[in-house]
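2024-03-11 09:14:02 INFO receiving multi-entity request
2024-03-11 09:14:02 INFO entity count = two
2024-03-11 09:14:03 INFO echoing inputs for audit
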Amino acid sequence: MATQRTDPPLAASEVDTLRAYLAYHRDTMRRKTEGLDQAQLSQVHPPSTLTLGGLLKHAALNDDWWFCRVFEGRETEPDWVPAGAFDEDEDWELSSARDDSPAELRRIFDETAAAADAAIDRALAKDGLDTLSVTPSRREGTPFSLRWIILHMIEEYARHNGHADLLREAVDGQVGE
Amino acid sequence: MLRSFLDYYRATILRQTEGLDAVQLATPLPPTTMTLGGMLKHLTWVESWWFRRVLNGLPELAWVGDGFAADPDWEWTSAKDDTWELLVSRYREVVAECDAILDAALATPEGLDLLAQRPRHGSYASVRWILVHLLEEYARHAGHADLIREAIDGKTDV
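2024-03-11 09:21:47 INFO inference complete, emitting structure
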């Protein structure tokens, strides 16, 4: 059954609005990538080399990077990234997805999203959206607020869902928000 | 912060559409029928829709006329007849008006909690919702534009 998705509330607090949009775009990515087999998830739409499976794994890597590593300061790669994976291939998450089953990609995506949400819950219980990241910006040397990270992830997910829209239409003709 | 994210994407869409001729702006990446020219005109209309019409209850833009009467995707399909200069000048004009409307809305005591004048499915959206919605709408179209632009001239990360 297709993932159910909830429209964000039209008039709500800042934290409820931002979290609802983040959930909306994660669910959109689930919908854009479900019901397909491994070959379809590995299909490219030339000249772009992106794939729907690669987008799922890339989104998981981003959720892990921003919420678990930058925000909460965990120093190690997630357990689904083999040691040295990025030394050989800086786009490892995008290119390696073709070797993963649809169920495995979805497991990585769902578990990472849940871990990211748990990190958000812990921060909101303390200083809310003003909570600062443990890891500072490499460019500016200053930490990120949770507010900035969630907004960034909304636009990052939305942009990749734009890629997913065209990839999915090319795979089986399915379109829609 | 919300406004700076929105401005980032307004600049992104201009970068993704500039430096192309009329044929390139009207070139889709099949099977989608979207074009970069159509996208610029669509986002012009979308800005006007949310800020001018929904938030402030203003009438339709004069240059739209009865374009939608015969074609529900008029802003997408009619863009092939417009030059990039015209598309951009209308875009900049509408964005400037929308920014003025937003300035006024944020200057009210309600600020981001101010409600729109025109309902959506029977309820009223806040300025906060409109801003986050516009951001994600822009970002999603920028994702479409990424693939369309790459197919036109190979440019990526524009």
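2024-03-11 09:21:48 INFO post-check: Chain A touches chain B through 36 residues (CB under 8 Å).
2024-03-11 09:21:48 INFO post-check: The longest helix of chain A spans residues 146-172.
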